[in-house]
Write a structure and sequence with these properties.
Layout: E1 2-7, E2 11-17, E3 23-30, H1 40-55, E4 61-66, E5 69-71, E6 76-79, H2 92-100, E7 104-108, H3 109-120, E8 129-134, E9 138-144, E10 147-148, H4 180-183, H5 185-192, H6 197-205, H7 209-233, E11 237-241, H8 248-262, H9 265-268, E12 272-275, H10 282-295
Length: 298
């Protein structure tokens, strides 16, 4: 068995997985229960130890999907844009290997989600995949020639932080006009002035033309960013993740139409755009796949 852990900003999911990706047991714990006064890594290690003891599990290794900028060689969180206290610098690989005495491999959560979707989800059979997750922010993962692409340190895929508007609104990363300032579901809800996306879509379904106009403007921005990314990476498949991707009729279909109309003709040849399939399990499954890929190199 492999212990797969998906560390998010508010909770961590963990599961016991076999090499096929089947989840035999799972658990979820809060990592923000005391406003991060307890470092996330401490919380996760304590929870993992209890989980393994409760399940009486023997593991061959640990695969970790972690929010933030992750140096995959070091297995360390090297950046968070200051968003999470007591987390930046977390030496996940080193600390977990010392505690559990098994090999540990760590990658960014968005890259893990993309890898998981290609292993068991919407990306099965594809070798060049762009995944964009639309949520509170915008996450991204790249699979190029069948392998997760991390760049020189494993930090590639920060798709929420390229500039969409040069003189745009300030972003938490310190820049202005970042893609996630316009393409996140948080940005959509702020434009709409609604309490959440569900209210927005309910009002559209009830014929609210103003809310439809807000959604259309947001979709234009999402599509503009995707069009540029497609021109850079020429993927065969684009996967859209995040809870909002469940809106097939109101969101996915009009987004696909905009992107296909916006890319240069040859980039649209055989291009497929679809929503993610694995939901909240994508990170754990991707962490497993990353561990397996690295274990084969040992």
């Amino acid at each position: 068995m492999i212990l797969a852990i998906d560390i998010g900003g508010t909770s961590a999911k963990m599961g016991l997985l076999d090499e096929s990706g089947t989840i035999h047991a799972r658990q979820e714990v809060s990592v923000s229960f005391d406003q991060y006064r307890t470092p996330i890594l401490d919380t996760v290690i304590s929870a993992a130890a209890r989980f393994l003891e409760e399940e009486k599990a023997e593991i061959a290794g640990i695969g970790v999907s972690a929010t933030g900028q992750v140096d995959t060689a070091l297995g360390q969180v090297v950046g968070t844009n200051g968003k999470i206290p007591n987390y930046e610098g977390a030496a996940i690989k080193e600390t977990m290997e010392a505690r559990f005495s098994v090999p540990v491999w760590v990658l960014n959560d968005a890259n893990a989600a993309a890898l998981g979707e290609c292993f068991l989800g919407a990306g099965i059979g594809y070798r060049d995949v762009l995944m964009v997750t639309l949520g509170t922010g915008v996450g991204g993962g790249l699979i190029l020639d069948g392998h997760v692409y991390g760049g020189s340190r494993g930090l590639a895929g920060e798709l929420g932080h390229f500039t969409l508007y040069q003189d745009g609104v300030p972003c938490a990363c310190g820049k202005r006009g970042c893609y996630e300032c316009y393409a996140s579901t948080k940005a959509l809800v702020m434009r709409a002035g609604t309490e959440n996306g569900r209210v927005l879509f309910e009002r559209i379904q009830n014929g609210d033309a103003g809310m439809q106009a807000v959604l259309n403007a947001w979709l234009d921005d999402v599509a503009a960013g995707l069009t540029g990314l497609i021109h850079i990476f020429n993927p065969a498949l684009v996967i859209i993740g995040g809870g909002i991707s469940a809106q097939e009729t109101l969101m996915i279909r009009p987004l696909v139409s905009r992107v296909m109309a916006g890319v240069m003709p040859r980039f649209a040849d055989n291009l497929c755009i679809r929503r993610a399939a694995l939901g909240n399990d994508a990170g754990m499954i991707g962490a497993l796949r990353f561990w397996l890929d690295n274990a084969q190199k040992l």
